[in-house]
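Field reference: "sequence" (input) and "structure" (output). Example, Hypoxanthine phosphoribosyltransferase:
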Amino acid sequence: AADISGDLSRILVTEEEITAKLDEIAAQVAADYEGKDLLLVGVLKGAVMVMADFARALPVLAPMDWMAVSSYGAGTRSSGVVQIRKDLDTDLHDKHVLIVEDIIDSGLTLSWLLENFASRGAASVEVFALLRKPEAAKVHVDCRYVGFDIPTEFVVGYGLDYAEQYRNLRDVAILAPHVYS
Ligand code: PRP
Ligand code: MN
Ligand code: MG
């Protein structure tokens, strides 16, 4: 395999820390949604890893659907223009939707998604984001479940990419600036 150790400045969140946090949030979600018709909606592609692990950490059954949107393209900054590449297969009517995201950076993707979901008749729509950059927020996103608040650095791994690369790293790491500057 390619040696990518020089591409990373440092590991920010380890696989073990992620696993422990997912167990904690899964227990909380199971309690909060007891008796409710819960639907997990993952935001492709970044949320693939967190959805796979979070869904299996849940002690209850929950169907999954996926929406593919993209605002970053090949760059390191959000374009602010969100494009739907794949819509949901599920009718949200009367569903309790939990959107599963890898990260809230500027907040533009999720605020756009929440607005998009508002007219679809869901009983409720909440957000679980594994990572959040509080100091990078351009718009406020009401996020019920947050894994880790992190500094404003460009991070990759555990689903997060730079130009589609690094998604399959097990930890979340800061990308060395020389890679993208
Ligand atoms: C990334 C990330 C979030 C979003 C967060 O997705 O996975 O979905 O950006 O950034 P924001 O809060 O500034 O909107 P991206 O658009 O890179 O697509 P991807 O998930 O396919 O990598
Ligand atoms: Mn994404
Ligand atoms: Mg991306």
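The first helix runs from residue 15 to 32.
The two ends are 24 Å apart (CA to CA).
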